[in-house]
Write a structure and sequence with these properties.
The protein is α+β, with helices and mostly antiparallel strands. It is built from three helices and two strands, in the order αββαα.
Length: about 100
């Protein structure tokens, strides 16, 4: 947050392949000589053994059944309340555009 830098992907589904892509992007924006802690819930695709390992990233898994600790849950709640609810979308691309905006 101090550097006003973030990484996000909008993908058609959630799985270990998408999580691997996200970790790759986080690793790329982590400055040389720094180390990133990636806080994850215990979704199955966060626990996959096939996820890539990066020397500049360490995953930290939240305790089970603790959505209040997961900041992504707050993001999804905000999106549902403001941009994604009570609307009709013309198609998939419109949904992606709403998420990206």
């Amino acid at each position: 947050p101090e550097r006003s830098l973030g990484v996000a992907l909008v993908l058609p589904s959630v799985n270990s392949q998408g999580m691997g892509l996200h970790l790759k992007e986080i690793s790329k924006v982590t400055p040389a000589g720094r180390h990133a802690i990636v806080i994850m819930d215990r979704a199955g695709y966060h626990l996959e053994k096939e996820l890539p390992d990066y020397s500049n990233l360490t995953p930290v898994h939240l305790p089970p059944y603790s959505p209040e600790l997961n900041s992504a849950e707050q993001l999804w709640e905000w999106l549902r309340e403001h941009d994604l609810s009570n609307r009709c979308f013309d198609g998939y691309e419109d949904i992606v555009d709403a998420c990206c905006n």
